[in-house]
Amino acid sequence: MAQLPNILIILGDDHGYGDISAHQGPHIQTPHIDRIAENGMRLTQFYANSSVCSPSRAALMTGRYPDRVGVPGVIRTYPESNWGYFSRDAITLPSMLKQKDYHTSIIGKWHLGLEPENHPCKRGFDHFHGFLGDMMDDYYTHLRHDQNYMRKDLEVIDPRGHATDLFTEWAIEVVRGHAHSSQPFFLYLAYNAPHTPIQPPEDWIERVRQREPDASPERVKYIALVEHMDAGIGRVLDALENTGQLSNTLVIYTSDNGGQLNVGATNGALKGGKGQMYEGGIRVPACAMWTDGIEKGYMCDNVAMLMDLFPTACEIAGVSVNHQIKGLSILPTLRGENQDFSDRAMYWVRKDGGHSFLGLNQHAVRRGNIKLLHNSPFEPLELYDLGDDPQETSDQTKTQKDAFREMGELLQAEMQQNGSVPWQA
Asked: Which CATH number is 6-334 given?
């Protein structure tokens, strides 16, 4: 019997659609992310499940819309700014893969709850080496609100070094630890980079500054943070190759939401960025390679979402999904087979506080090329045909009234389920 493939999902944090060199991002060089694309498939219409961190991660872990697992918004340290509680009833991807004896590890950022019951090792992971919280206030101290959320399994740790380097080293340890094992592994490598603070190592800043003299100082620092992460990804891929595991490992790279524009990111020609329901806030770079399962050099414009990785991984592992999810396996797409998602309906949500939200939601729905979005609870709905207007420049709410009504009904149907799962402990 052939050994089941290893599965490695690498998630960047706020990595913009335009900020890989395969997408012709200005000034930037990401040879190792490009290596995944060139040796497999690049997905040009791949979406995060929200415009911010926690909801997208909840969708990835469960194959479901994030509000259906109690995470409509960002999970934060303090109750007054917290907008989610990861449902204890939600079935996670690592727990599914353990049915086929996968060893399951998460390296890096969790961001799905600080409660003991929501520790990764209580949600299906055999091993956790990383950061429990939302963002680090410093890539070297690893603190958030002066609190230490770094853990090795259940133990509080205080490692030294840049977080990106630490996560890379810890991921390599996992890879090397399985070099002589017949047990397949699932490794979820979730970098904090390139989330704020934009704090790359100084030598990386100087390297980019010398190479890209026309880039602004802000852009140079952002590029350096991305390229430093890309180099780490390259080291993990090299470890897989050097241990003879690369050919039997599905490797996927993507991001939890779009790039943050005010810190030097770019989302290419897409409108908007992190925190917005325009394409730049939710469409993200995505590529996958698997020597034994994906032919080289494909580019695919099928729409897909982070939550689709749950059933895809399960199908690859031969695990039956017998509970209700909204994610769809894209394994046929990865294998070069035709999948018709032209009429697929998709939904996005984000709940938040502060003066921009006051506890209300932003939303979007898409069916085919038609997209209805509510970028702010205090702004009107907007309707776009992404086939004719991918940059979302011409609002069609007044001229395409039938489409506006139909998409409004779709949004309403999703919103009726929005409160079905509590988002507070």
From this structure: 3.40.720.10
